[in-house]
Specification:
Number of helices: 10
CATH class: Alpha Beta
Number of domains: 1
Distance between the termini: 25 Å
Oligomer: single chain
Order of helices and strands: HEEEHEEHEHEEHHEHEHEEHH
Bound molecules: adenosine-5'-triphosphate, magnesium ion
Strand order of the largest sheet: 6-9-10-3-11-12
CATH topology: Rossmann fold
Helix content: 25-40%
Structural class: alpha/beta
Radius of gyration: 21 Å
Strand content: 15-25%
CATH architecture: 3-Layer(aba) Sandwich
Length: 295
């Protein structure tokens, strides 16, 4: 019987970032003037649900042309974190700033109007609708005026096809229902859609969680592409092997508290994995299992 593999496999894109790409990342980080406001910033943010402290004193910043990764185990507060950024929840304490100004979003629509686009794990697509129809959903091009206004199908198809090609996504057919795309392709369409409609910040909730190694690699490539287009990307994952190759900054959450926010130069892949895997907990479990097998 073959063992399920844990960690990076030869196909895994982890660790494949070239020195040139890393230098480019450093240059991007340096390009921001020291006193310029961050695209997004959380300062000491907290959120409670009744007696549950979902987030406590979390600070992080998101800059244009960078990928901020948020890592944490189940229940760490990752979803709560993005829901605050996306305007679904309001923070109880601390401050949330967009381009330097404090904000208090009453709805996700308000966040979207400020260019903060969120791709949720369930993607909120209509599976039976075609790719192009999903692509323009909510921002449909129309022809005619007033009561005669109707969806401009030709234009919508062309917009979707062009925007997907621009991101290097070559689907066989934009006419096929979204439900027939693979999980990875759906994520890529959602990313291309946010880029096309002018998002400044792209928040992705565990986009690679349900994907195989190859598809995860493809999604990581589009995350990098969105970053290269100048978006600030917030990438939520519990997989350090997915985070490290594309991340510029890593926020580690544990039971609602920040375990630190590290620039890529401050943390090695091994250390990130150790922190995430609850290194010592797994080691002691291994000892316990060995001891159990010996008796
Ligand atoms: N609407 C809510 N009402 C009550 N408690 C909540 C609510 N949303 C989250 N919580 C609690 O807050 C804590 C953090 O939850 P959150 O969903 O943010 O974690 P997560 O890191 O996204 O976990 P997972 O990896 O399982 O998705 C959990 O203890 C959860 O039970
Ligand atoms: Mg979650």
């Amino acid at each position: 019987m073959t063992q399920p593999s844990i960690g990076p496999t030869p196909e895994e894109p982890a660790g494949h970032t070239s020195a040139a790409a890393r230098d480019a990342g450093a240059a991007r980080a340096d390009a921001r003037p020291r006193d310029a406001a961050h695209l997004l910033e959380l300062r000491g943010v907290g959120k409670r649900f009744g007696s549950v402290i979902a987030l406590d004193d979390v600070s992080v910043s998101v800059d244009a042309g960078e990928v901020t990764c948020v890592l944490g185990d189940n229940g760490a507060g990752k979803s709560t974190f993005i829901k605050i950024l996306a305007g679904v929840h309001a923070n109880d304490s601390g401050a949330y700033l967009v381009e330097g100004a404090p904000v208090r979003f009453a709805s996700p629509r308000q966040a979207l109007d400020r260019g903060i686009a969120t791709v949720h794990q369930d993607l909120a697509v209509v599976p039976l609708m075609s790719v192009w129809r999903n692509f323009v959903l909510g921002s449909e091009p129309v022809k005619g005026r007033g009561p005669f206004a109707r969806l401009d199908v030709t234009q919508a198809r062309a917009v979707a096809r062009r925007a997907l090609l621009d991101m290097g996504i070559d689907l066989r057919d934009v006419e096929q229902p979204v439900g027939t795309l693979s999980g990875g392709e759906r994520q890529c369409v959602a990313i291309a859609r946010a880029v096309h409609f002018g998002a400044k910040v792209l928040i992705l909730d565990e986009p690679t969680a349900a994907l195989g190694v190859k598809q995860a690699g493809v999604v990581l490539r589009y995350i990098a592409r969105a970053r290269d287009r100048g978006l600030g990307v917030v990438f939520i994952t519990h997989n350090p092997h997915h985070a490290y190759p594309v991340g510029d900054r890593f926020l580690l959450l544990n039971r609602g508290r920040s375990q630190g926010c590290f620039a890529k130069s401050e943390i090695t892949p091994a250390e990130l994995t150790r922190q995430m895997a609850g290194g010592t907990e797994l080691e002691s479990l291994a000892h316990e299992l060995d001891a159990g097998a010996a008796t």
